[in-house]
Amino acid sequence: MDEGGGQKLRSFPRKRESRAVSSPASKELGPRFRGDERVIEASIMTAFTALLLRDIRLSLRIGGGALMGALFFLIVVTLMPFAIGPDLNLLARIGPAILWLGALLASLLALDRLFAMDQDDGSLDLLMMGRMPLELAVLAKALAHWITTGLPLVIVAPVLGLMLNVELRAMGWVTLTLLAGTPALTFIGLVGAALSVALRRGGLLLPVLTLPLTVPVLIFGVAAANAAIVGPAPFGPPFTILCALSLASLVLGPIAAAAALRHGLE
Amino acid sequence: MQLTADNLACNRGGRDVFAGVSFSLAGGEALVVAGRNGAGKSSLLRLIAGLVRIAGGTLVLQGGEPEAGIAEQAHYVGHQDALKPTLSVSENLRFWADYLGAAADTVESALEAVGLAALTDLPAAYLSAGQRRRLSIARLIAAPRPIWLLDEPTSALDTPSQARLADLMRGHLAGGGLIVAAAHGPIGLERAQELRLGADG
Amino acid sequence: MAVIDLANPTRFLALVNRVLPWLVAATALVFAIGLYRAAYAPDDYQQGATVKIMFLHVPAAWLGMMGWVIMSAAALGTLVWRHPLADVAGKAAAPIGAAFTLICLITGALWGRPTWGTYWVWDARLTSVLILFLLYLGVMALYWTAEEPGRGARAAAILTLVGAVNIPIIKFSVDWWNTLHQPASIVRLGGATVDVSILVPLLIMAGAFTLLFITLHLAAMRNEILRRRVRTMRLLQAQTLSEART
């Protein structure tokens, strides 16, 4: 963590005499300095689920942003026909593209808050002092973020597809591509969120950093959706690449974001 | 357990905050960091907590857990409370206890220790500044760690709460823990080393 | 949220508790009559029985719009007289208005499927109702975001009034946009000539919907007042308990 500091740790045998102090602080002293491997592993799992559940709970409580993304998605998709015209055949043809663009913008919307809220109230400092590697902490936060903002987009997409006159069967395929692709959007955006927090510049920096990186996801997401609906290219290859993008960003995103947060240390 | 700093230097945003800070603290000892505003009291604590990069010198912990860094064996109570207003008092504390590695379910007893047991289900948004500070101190008891880093721990606390905190700190020291506290005035510990920043460099 | 503020709502609560059972009964009765009359109304010679969706669709649309009128009145009350009940009324009306608008949209889509062959058409009326729905969701999101009830009140009131000014403009532009693209090729909902045999059940249904709205609104206002009281009491709890400790 502090590479400049030359922190050397030697395992010295520790003195631990039995003490009898009545203060509450000393009650738990028994197991506290013990470094049993299994205990640490279990405590990492506890920490991971605790962080995941806390973030989900926070975004569902008052003031949380859980449904804002879905609402934004709905509004963006509603605006499209006003620009394009209400021609149902045209809308059906470009429907998957509209849905993908809407999902892309909507999933970026809430990313801004991902680390900024924890930074504002000092939680981020403590998150960095946990026993769990920072990468895992970031992963837990990102998963919670996708569950509360990405998944609702996937769920409302069929309704919006209906409004764009996309056939029901085709809508199933589009929804599948969104399910496979939105995690990639979250995990790529994660890096931008961490960078903007590290630089203490929120807001507009995030989309500027992140949007260019999402181009491959957009390309293969829309390609897979179109392949499923109109053909003639097969659905398999672009969809597989889309899944690969999600999985790769699932691993690389947290590593890069954790590095960005650590680098943000003064 | 021995925390030794040798010739520590800190640089924040291109400004040298302090340099040449040395101290040595054994288990059961407390260090009170004093100095005028801007002398780097908070920076020193954040530096020990691993939240600020060390610009020079060494910081060594002997006799701690071999595989864990200093930050993972330390508690940091800063000016910010790290509390979520929409979560209840116990939800807030339980999260930090789980995250920071409490060995057992210690939430109840920790809330008892800081006198917040009656407010368990209340959202943290309803708490006063002093109550919020007490809740973040409860963290130290819920998830035991050997090093306490306290930045002006008595601010916002009334006299009874200050006495209670002093009791908790004495208990921690008696259990072999270390305390580094930044403070303007006395924090209620009879025997503590003092480190004055800024005056003599 | 001093104790004085609660004095007036207390009288309001007593009134609501007395009136509410009667309102529920009246709503159920008028609904029963309306649905009975609607069921025996003649079928349309073109659309068959599907035209009966109208008996739900049209009143829902009216009430969806009335919801915004009520919210606008409440917003004026909040901004001009700063009456605590006005904000409660506005906040309680938003989800109910949104729900009626959503019923209008869903029944419209179900009606559209057999009539137009598709669930959704970017028809001027449907689109305007959709935008009204989005505005409702916006106000609800604003209330949802504000942690303190008082702080959200004025912001939501301003947004409501801005929306009220904008709704006619939106309606006009959507109409213009629609005729630009589709010169009257689509069957409009609810033609100008409505037979009495349809009009009477429709009006009864509208009455039933209005009663339902009022019932739900009063109940929601009561719940909101109680919710705020709970909040005040818990704040007090936080204060007194910390004093008792010393």
What do these coordinates show?
The complex is a heterotrimer of chains A (266), B (201) and C (246). Chain A has one domain (37-263). Chain A has ten helices and one strand. Chain A has helices at 37-60, 68-84, 88-109, 113-120, 123-127, 134-163, 168-198, 205-210, 215-229, 236-263, and one strand at residues 9-10. The longest helix of chain A is centred in the last third of the chain and has 31 residues, at 168-198. Chain A starts with 8 loop residues before the first strand and ends with a helix. By secondary structure, chain B is α/β, with parallel strands linked by helices. Chain B has one domain (2-196): Rossmann fold. In chain B, 29% of the residues lie in helices and 27% in strands. Chain B has helices spanning 41-48, 89-100, 107-114, 129-142, 159-174; strands at 2-12, 15-26, 30-34, 54-62, 74-77, 147-151, 178-182, 193-196. In chain B, helix 2 packs parallel to helix 4 and helix 3 (107-114) packs across helix 4 (129-142). The two termini of chain B are 27 Å apart. By secondary structure, chain C is mainly α. Chain C has one domain. Chain C is built from six helices and no strands. The longest helix of chain C has 50 residues, at 196-245. Residues 1-7 and 183-190 of chain C have low confidence and may be disordered. Classes of the chains: A mainly alpha (266), B alpha/beta (201), C mainly alpha (246). The interface between A and B is large, with 56 and 71 residues. Strand 1 (9-10) of chain A pairs parallel with strand 4 (54-62) of chain B.
List the helices and strands and how they pair.
The complex is a heterotrimer of chains A (266), B (201) and C (246).
Chain A: E1 9-10, H1 37-60, H2 68-84, H3 88-109, H4 113-120, H5 123-127, H6 134-163, H7 168-198, H8 205-210, H9 215-229, H10 236-263
Helix pairs in contact in A: 1-6, 2-3, 2-6, 3-6, 3-7, 3-9, 4-7, 6-7, 6-10, 7-9, 7-10, 9-10
Chain B: E1 2-12, E2 15-26, E3 30-34, H1 41-48, E4 54-62, E5 74-77, H2 89-100, H3 107-114, H4 129-142, E6 147-151, H5 159-174, E7 178-182, E8 193-196
Parallel strand pairs in B: 3-7, 3-8, 5-6, 6-7
Antiparallel strand pairs in B: 1-2, 1-4
Chain C: H1 3-39, H2 54-81, H3 84-116, H4 124-145, H5 149-181, H6 196-245
Helix pairs in contact in C: 1-6, 2-3, 2-4, 2-5, 2-6, 3-4, 3-5, 3-6, 4-5
